[in-house]
Design brief:
It is an enzyme of class 2 (transferase). Pathway: tRNA modification; tRNA-queuosine biosynthesis. It is a single chain. By secondary structure, this protein is α/β, with parallel strands linked by helices. The protein is 42% helix and 19% strand. It folds into two domains: 2-272, TIM Barrel (Alpha-Beta Barrel), CATH 3.20.20.105; 279-364, no CATH class. The protein has helices at residues 43-48, 58-63, 67-72, 76-80, 92-98, 124-134, 152-177, 199-210, 228-238, 256-264, 274-280, 312-316, 319-327, 331-357, 361-373, and strands at residues 2-8, 11-18, 21-25, 27-31, 54-57, 86-89, 102-105, 108-112, 119-122, 138-140, 188-193, 216-219, 248-250, 269-271, 283-286, 289-292. The protein has an eight-stranded parallel beta barrel with strand order 4-5-6-10-11-12-13-14, surrounded by four helices. Strand 11, helix 8 (199-210) and strand 12 form a beta-alpha-beta unit. Helix 13 crosses helix 14 (331-357). It is globular.
């Protein structure tokens, strides 16, 4: 259940009640694709850096170790030792981005595993069964993620198929939630809005899927090659046609700037690999922009990554030490940067929630963006 607590313009501040706890929104979901955050960050670490939701991937866990294995071990929460909400994405995006050769049919998609080449079929029912085995808090509907750019006729056919698949997802998840051996009988379902940069297709699809009375709604197929201006325009035009009393989720986005702009346009949920991926490449997010800790100027710098940061890394370690670890190719360097970056994102979401509550979001956003524009110290 979603409870809207405050609005500031279109920015929403809410609470999303789930069987695994209450999610304060807007929220950034920390991405643990294969049931682990890349960069050797444990679930105990996540508890200490304000993480509310962990996101794992249906396709990757189906391929390895297998969703049946995870079910036998008590579900994903027990498997990865995490007691807060988990969202699993449907595998749709991975099928289209990793599979290479694939055949899309009405029943689903035939493709080869990117790990061992074995033939796999995934459709709406299969995606729901895998996610039910994983026992995540929120399951995502199986959709087609069309390429960008795509012809209008292809996009329309694809979106229509995604709608038909959504009907099948909802029916199958209702069936699975009623079975005696299902681990999480309260698993929720989010539908996905598609349509590329075709505003009218997006709006029509948003209206259609809103009738399904799902637990939440996502915008998919953005940040796939279109400009930021195009993405913001589509969000702005589409979100008003999704239910205000349900959470909206912008999939796979983004940078801190993307998040600030999208919150202003009514988005509640975000996920992105950037904080972990950039951390593994020696980059740290700060209030004065992104820092490259590999730079020589940090060799004798005994300051923390960011002065005043409350993360466990800035509490103890210097820029000089982290730079040394990176240069020496010590894994600890990556772990410290990923931890700091995830804390930065989670903490920024906390600040965003407070700014919306206090009706000062526009001012907060402006100050934050000005800070990012300064560049590294």
């Amino acid at each position: 259940m979603y409870k809207l607590l405050a609005k500031d313009g279109r920015a929403k501040r809410g609470e999303f009640h789930t069987v695994h706890g209450v999610i304060q929104t807007p929220v950034f979901m920390n991405v643990g694709t294969a049931a682990a955050i890349k960069g050797a960050v444990s679930t105990q670490d996540l508890q200490g850096i304000k993480t509310q939701v962990e996101l794992s991937n249906t396709y990757h866990l189906h391929v390895r170790p297998g969703d049946e294995v995870i079910k036998k071990l008590g579900g994903l929460h027990k498997f990865m030792v995490w007691d807060k909400p988990i969202l699993t994405d449907s595998g749709g995006f991975q099928v289209f981005s990793l599979a290479g050769l694939r055949k899309i049919k009405e029943e689903g998609v035939y493709f080869n595993s990117h790990v061992d080449g074995r033939k796999i079929f995934m459709g709406p029912e299969e995606s729901m069964r895998i996610q039910s085995n994983l026992a995540s808090t929120i399951a995502m509907a199986f959709d087609e993620c069309p390429p960008h750019p795509a012809e209008r006729s292809y996009m329309q056919d694809s979106v229509d198929r995604t709608t038909r698949w959504l009907i099948r997802c909802k029916e199958e998840l209702n069936r699975l939630n009623s079975l005696p051996d299902t681990i999480n009988k309260n698993q929720m379902l989010f539908g996905i809005n598609q349509g590329g940069t075709y505003k009218d297709i997006r709006i029509e699809h948003a209206k259609k899927i809103s009738e399904f009375d799902l637990n939440g709604y996502a915008l998919g197929g953005l940040a796939v090659g279109e400009s930021h201006a195009e993405m913001y325009y589509i969000i702005e035009e589409t979100v008003p046609y999704l239910p205000l009393e349900k959470p909206t989720y912008l999939m796979g986005v983004g940078t801190p700037e993307n998040i600030l702009e999208s919150v202003e346009r009514g988005i509640d949920f975000f996920d992105c690999v950037y904080p972990a991926r950039n951390g593994r490449h020696g980059h740290a997010y700060t209030n004065h922009g992104k820092m490259n800790l590999m730079n020589a100027k940090y060799e004798l710098d005994d300051a923390p990554i960011e002065r005043g940061c409350g993360c466990p890394v800035c509490k103890y370690y210097s820029r000089a030490y982290i730079r040394h670890l990176l240069k020496a190719k010590e894994m600890l360097g990556l772990r410290l940067l990923v931890t700091h970056n995830l804390y930065f994102y989670n903490n920024m979401m906390e600040e965003i929630r407070a700014a919306i509550e206090e009706q000062r979001y526009a001012e907060y956003k402006k100050n934050k963006l000005n800070g990012f524009a300064q560049g590294e110290e």
